[in-house]
Specification:
The complex is a heterodimer of chains A (566) and B (713). Chain A has 566 residues and is of the alpha+beta class. Chain A is elongated and about 135 Å long. In chain A, 40% of the residues are buried. Chain B is an alpha/beta fold. Chain B contains 28 helices and 20 strands. In chain B, strands 4-3-5-6-2-9 form a 6-stranded parallel beta sheet, with helices on both faces. In chain B, strands 10-15-14-11-13-12 form a 6-stranded parallel beta sheet, with helices on both faces. A 5-stranded mixed beta sheet of chain B has the order 16-20-19-18-17. In chain B, helix 3 packs across helix 4, helix 22 packs across helix 24 and helix 26 runs antiparallel to helix 28. Classes of the chains: A alpha+beta (566), B alpha/beta (713). Strand 10 of chain A pairs parallel with strand 1 of chain B, so a sheet runs across the interface.
Chain lengths: 566, 713
């Protein structure tokens, strides 16, 4: 399996391939310098398009010798398959229990909660030994701005996955030792009995780890953003100057519209090109168990909502107690109880406690005060901004507008007259025709060139003019076509010259001789000119045969004898 | 750890948050959290794989190792400049033949691997759609679709489409419905008019990156250049009125008032490499053409004369259509071949075999005689001629080839496009005690590889190849090439020569052309040698010379028409004279066009080096000189670079790591060289951490690279 030494485009490929084959039990058979045949076991074939064997070239020379082989370089389909095969594994590594020190600390009985409480009181509930899971996330961060892309793999700090707090230096160092196999994990028999505090739900846990990664990358992202902002400003300045000059001498509305659309398109492209984006790909989680001393309090708000809060310190770590906000994991300056209770406690401390209403607390930074009821709430139980006044609202006073689908508070809500549904006040306005209040979804704006100008029209008052280009107009601006009943606005109306009835454009045409407009019903033909159109009052019928003829062709039907005609 | 039924859903981020979590990675991660922990070995492999999969920024081009081509330094440099300095929007205006397609393809690959070119659209003239598709597939291993149905655009993310088809109503609607990350417009001079439908269509395409490829951004009027640059980057040249007032000379729309000022503006969006700047760096040995006298035997001459008369008679009687009538239909599709067209194909075959061998001619004449689409009288004539051809036993060309093979003990490549002729040559080579290796299109890929390997292994072997052998295979191991028959299309001959006369060829290349006196081939040879000067050309010049004429295909068609229409040899000679004058005019026009475009285009590296030599630091001089004719490499330098596995990009990286162009750096003296004089030593780092040390002469042009060494990362 030894490869001959040649200049390979990427020296990292061979070790990767060799190790994968060893672990996946794939056979790697050498077919020449830098050329291999990989025989895959059944379980691996799905990753390589169902193939049992794949020929792999590690250099261009090898590929030239076997053009049917696949090149193993960055960006090649083969490497894509190989990475996919590897990536289906090893998302998580468990390191086991961190070895506790021989002499465990005793839990003090006189520990008080020193963090100030907002409108609440605390009561100590219990003290116990507990095991917490601590972990570290490996993620790929893709940073994009314009034509610049930067990818890095970074590791988060070691975080207590139950509390969300960052582990102290000692625990982080022990975690590192365990990861690097410098120490062995503790035997479960050597660990004293302790209650297991589960990690937070995956989504929350990931949010915690990701926010740590964001903090780590903040400087880099900010630098990119500054560069991107400067870049886009210069590009937009050039575009605006150019299009303003081009538009300066244009008067034709069509030209103006085309150029404006082009200007907007190019602007949007520039802004999108320069937009900074940081995309996180979570890759691997490494976790370990750590033995903790844990003290728990029950906090009761003035509104009667109860929540639990715990302090903990690792047996093996420093002697400092860790107080972490249950939301963000940071040390709280003040504790606040959310006004909303949830059915399942968060987090459940013991089995059998689910199913009852339980409140939760958070730090002052994670809390918001509702602008309607002035109660404190967490980010999961309300909205940060009402779309109308930008003020926060708790879950009880937050709504989603059925018209714009954005969130608003109950103080800025009204009812749409069409369907009687609620909507935010920004979407509600009176109909310009009937005066009822309707939402944007149930209204349309007529154009400035409509007979009564641009107006908001509710569904009931809205008509589409058949006489023009189907533009919206008000019911009070139209008449019905006498032939088909469709609406025609006063600006596009025409009447039949014979009976004076309003008609739409489809039912009117000009008489060929006189040029008068006539509807279908009042059109007539002349026996001498069957292809020509006349108005009904421009022809007369022969008293004998009943055929009609125009003034110039009276008697053309031949029914009246010359001697009898005048 | 996680509930298996629960998918991780992160709370939505505010709309203005620039952070997001990749959904696919998140789903995979959630599944893996739910599964039992992995063994450590897999964990470590995955960790390493994630580092391998990392894509760096554009300071390093990473796809170069995965192409089936050896990119030239100037092509790498162009790709880097477009990606790093021009934000992926540029006019690639290299002179003809320097590889604009390759440059655009490298740029596409580099953007694609970073996820910046997920949707890519290539617009090209209909005749080049297949060529683009083939090159991307074969050289870059990238499959592009060529949508024919407007509904195809729903699923296609990488497409090549002709200008005409793309702007047709139904296709245009579908194309404009999507956002395209990268748009490449080939032969962009064809869309030079801002009032043209294609120009206006391209203007409407939403795109992030755009490349316009043309060797002649300026043909007749500076407005064309203005239009292309404005399409690429509106406002770069101001409004047309501003541009006209600042840069146009009254009465001459082609000449800029101040070429220097215009160059300063085009510099930000346009790159043009001049042939003269890079041709010496290609380090190609000279071509040595030989045209040994070939005198047809009496029987051969008689057969030639009679067959010529027969073909001309058919032509006069209207059986031979103009070849272009049978060409491409709308949107590049081939027109249905008529019965007359079938006969015409047989005629072309016959014409091509006329000078190849009597054996090949006999086969084609017999085939024609069996056809039902010619008159019985013509069938009889064809049968008689076939009979006469079969009786020819002595082949003048074969005898000349025998002499050449006897004089050349080394490998030889013999090209012929006709199977019966190849069989004749094969027998003769065997009779001479050498190994014939026949190579034609009917062979499987594996068999082709096997035969090329056999040619490499046996230094006395003779490779007898058809056109299939002149496409895509590198035969620089050999330096003697025999054109047993001369194709009427000069590009085919150039491609044959290109198999042997290419980068890596160290010996003089002998091109032996077998053209029998008094035959059409002798006239072709005369035009190729005297008018086109095919055997002295440097890279890309054939396209330049034949550009105004209409291209190599047009040359073949015109030559065939003149030959068939000629009353007699004297008449044909007069026609060839006119053809020659037209070729000279085309060549002159092509060169004038090239000069004009070079005058308005920004300086290429060679010119910058020349103009700013005294102000440049040592690494900057070498960085600019690399890949141009201003830098020579001492004997063995290139071989040592290859042996050390140093890619050209690594050299560029190492030089840049010392200091960017325009800065200052100190160097260490490295003694003196007998030929080049005082030397300096300088060391730079590649992005992978290898230290590359160069020993070079940097005091005057041409610069010289004398030694190279590498320290591992």
């Amino acid at each position: 399996m030894r490869a001959k030494k040649t200049a390979r485009p990427d020296a990292r490929m061979w070790p990767l391939l060799e190790r994968y084959c060893k672990l996946a039990k794939a056979k790697l058979i050498r077919r020449g310098a830098d050329l291999y045949e990989m025989k895959l076991p059944l379980s691996e074939r799905a990753h390589f398009s169902g193939r049992a064997t794949v020929r792999v070239a590690l250099s261009l020379e090898a590929l030239e010798r076997d053009p049917d082989a696949e090149m193993a370089v960055l960006g090649s389909p083969f490497l894509g398959h190989l990475l996919e095969a590897i990536r289906t594994r090893a998302g998580r590594l468990s390191l086991g229990m961190m070895p506790p020190p021989h002499a465990a600390r005793r839990t003090p009985h006189d520990l008080d909660l020193t963090v100030p409480l907002r409108d609440a009181t605390a009561r100590r509930r219990k003290s116990q030994l507990a095991t917490h899971t601590v972990g570290r996330l490996l993620a790929r961060i893709v940073l994009r701005a314009g034509a610049v892309v930067e990818e890095t793999v970074i590791e988060s700090a070691v975080i207590d996955l139950a509390t969300g707090a960052r582990a102290d230096d000692q625990v982080t160092a022990q975690f590192g030792d365990l990861h690097a196999q410098r120490v062995v994990p503790a035997d479960p028999g050597d660990v004293p009995d302790a209650v297991s505090v589960p990690a937070r739900p995956p989504a929350e846990m990931l949010q915690l780890l990701l926010s740590d990664l964001r903090e780590q990358s903040a400087e880099r992202v900010a630098a990119r953003q500054v560069g991107a902002e400067q870049g886009v400003a210069a590009e937009l300045e050039r575009l605006d100057r150019y299009f303003a000059s081009v538009l300066a001498d244009k008067t034709d509305p069509d030209d103006v519209r085309t150029i404006t659309a082009l200007h907007e398109r190019r602007r949007a492209e520039e802004m999108r090109r320069h937009q900074v984006m940081a995309i996180v790909h979570p890759l691997q989680l490494v976790d370990a168990q750590v033995l903790m001393q844990r003290v728990e309090w029950e906090i009761r708000s003035k509104r009667g909502v109860r929540a639990r809060f715990a302090a903990q310190r690792p047996i093996a770590g420093s002697a400092t107690w860790i107080l972490a906000c249950p939301q963000c994991g940071r040390p709280p300056a003040e504790l606040v109880v959310c006004v909303h209770e949830v059915l399942t406690p968060r987090p459940p401390l013991r089995s059998g406690e689910g199913g009852q209403k339980q409140g939760h607390c958070m730090c002052d930074a994670c809390s918001t005060r509702c602008s309607v009821c002035e109660a404190d709430f967490c980010s999961d139980h309300g909205i940060a901004h009402c779309r109308v006044d930008e003020q926060p609202a708790c879950e009880q006073h937050a709504r989603v507008c059925q018209s714009c689908r954005m969130t608003h508070c109950t103080a800025h809500e009204g009812v749409c007259a069409e369907g009687e549904h609620p909507a935010c006040s920004a979407c509600l306005e009176a109909c310009g025709s009937c005066g009822r209040t309707v939402c944007n979804r149930h209204a349309e704006q007529s154009r400035a060139d409509a007979p009564k100008g641009s107006r908001r029209l509710c569904t009931a008052c809205l008509r589409y003019c058949e006489g023009g280009t189907n533009e919206p107009v008000g019911v009070d601006e139209v008449a019905q076509c006498a032939s088909c009943g469709r609406s025609v606005c006063t600006a596009h109306q025409a009447v039949c010259a014979v009976d004076g009835q309003v008609q739409c454009s489809r039912h009117l045409r000009r008489a060929d001789g006189s040029g008068r407009l006539v509807c279908e019903q009042h059109r007539a033909t002349c026996v001498a000119e069957p292809e020509a159109v006349f108005a009904a009052d421009e022809v007369s019928a022969c008293p004998v045969c009943g055929k009609t003829a125009c003034g110039s062709h009276q008697g053309a039907c031949g029914c009246l004898a010359p001697e009898t005609s005048l | 750890m996680a509930d298996p039924a629960v998918r991780i859903t992160l709370s939505p981020a505010p709309a203005d948050d620039l952070w997001s979590v990749d959904e696919r990675s998140l789903d995979l991660f959630a599944k893996q959290l739910d599964a039992p922990p992995s063994p450590r070995a897999w964990y470590e492999l995955r960790r390493e794989a994630e580092h391998v999969a990392l894509v760096p920024g554009f300071d390093r081009l990473i796809t170069l190792g995965g192409h089936a081509i050896k990119e030239l330094p100037h092509q790498i440099d162009v790709a880097q400049r477009v990606l790093r300095q021009m934000g992926g929007r540029a006019i690639l205006a290299d002179e003809v033949g320097l590889g604009k397609t390759i440059e655009a393809s490298i740029i596409y690959r580099e953007l694609a691997i970073r996820g910046l070119a997920r949707r890519t659209l290539i617009l090209t003239p209909a005749s080049l759609v297949g060529q683009w598709q083939g090159e991307l597939e074969e050289k870059f291993f990238q499959h592009f679709d060529t949508p024919t149905d407007p509904d195809d655009w729903q699923r296609v993310t990488r497409a090549i489409v002709s200008h005409d088809r793309a702007r047709s109503r139904r296709h245009a609607e579908e194309i404009l419905r999507h956002h395209w990350d990268l748009v490449i417009v080939d032969e962009a001079h064809k869309i030079k008019s801002h009032r043209g439908a294609t120009y206006q269509f391209i203007e409407k395409i939403e795109r992030d990156f755009i490349l316009l490829l043309t060797a002649t951004p300026l043909q007749n009027d500076l407005r064309e250049l203005y239009n292309l640059i404005t399409l690429l980057r509106p406002g770069q040249l101001g409004t047309w009125e501003e541009f006209r007032a600042a840069h146009l000379v009254a009465g001459d729309p082609r000449q800029p008032k101040d070429p220097e000022a215009l160059r300063a503006l085009t510099h930000a969006v346009m790159i043009r490499t001049r042939r003269a700047s890079v041709v010496d760096d290609l380090d190609l040995p000279p071509r040595r053409p030989r045209h040994p006298a070939v005198k047809l035997t009496k029987a051969e001459a008689d057969l030639y004369e009679r067959t010529t008369q027969f073909l001309r008679r058919l032509y006069r009687e209207g059986f031979v259509q103009h070849e272009e009538d049978e060409g491409e239909g709308e949107d590049g599709g081939t027109k249905r071949r008529t019965g007359k067209g079938m006969v015409q194909l047989a005629m072309i075959h016959l014409r091509q075999r006329l000078c190849s061998s009597a054996k090949a001619l006999a086969e084609s004449l017999a085939h024609l005689a069996e056809g039902e689409r010619i008159k019985p009288a013509h069938r009889t004539m064809a049968r008689q001629l076939a009979e006469r051809a079969r009786k020819v036993k002595t082949h003048a060309k074969l005898n000349v080839l025998t002499k050449i093979l006897k004089e050349t003990p080394d490998r030889v490549v013999v090209f012929s496009d006709h199977r019966p002729t190849i069989e004749l040559i094969e027998q003769r080579v065997k009779a001479l005690g050498r190994t014939p290796i026949v190579y034609w299109g009917a062979l499987t890929t594996a068999e082709r590889d096997k035969r090329i390997r056999a040619f490499h292994d046996d230094e006395r072997s003779v490779l007898i190849a058809t056109r299939a052998g002149s496409e895509g295979r590198n035969l620089q191991i050999c330096n003697v090439l025999v054109n047993y028959d001369l194709p009427w299309n000069p590009m085919v001959i150039e491609q044959r020569i290109g198999r042997v006369h290419r980068i890596g060829q160290k010996r003089e290349v002998h091109i032996v052309n077998l053209a029998a006196a008094g035959t059409i081939e002798s006239y072709i040879l005369q035009l190729l040698d005297k008018k086109i000067k095919l055997f002295e050309l440097v890279v890309g010049e054939l396209d330049l010379i034949l550009g105004e004429f209409g291209g190599a295909q047009k040359f073949e068609v015109r030559l065939a028409d003149e030959w068939l229409a000629a009353e007699n040899d004297a008449d044909f000679e007069r026609r060839v004279e006119t053809l020659g004058l037209d070729l000279e005019r085309s060549s002159a026009a092509g060169r004038a066009q090239e000069q004009l475009n070079s005058a308005i285009a920004p300086d290429d590296n060679a010119t910058r080096l020349e103009r700013r030599f005294d102000d440049l630091s040592v690494p900057a001089r070498l960085r600019l000189g690399l890949g141009t004719s201003h830098l020579v490499k001492a004997a063995g330098w290139e071989a040592k670079r290859r042996r050390l596995g140093v890619h050209v990009t690594e050299l560029l990286e190492a030089l840049e790591s010392i200091e960017p162009i325009g800065g200052a750096a100190t160097t260490q003296s490295a003694g003196s060289h007998a030929e080049y004089g005082a030397l300096v030593r300088l060391t730079g780092l590649t992005s992978s951490g290898r230290a590359i040390t160069l020993v070079a002469q940097v005091e005057r042009l041409p610069l010289a690279l004398v030694d190279i060494s590498v320290e591992a990362a």
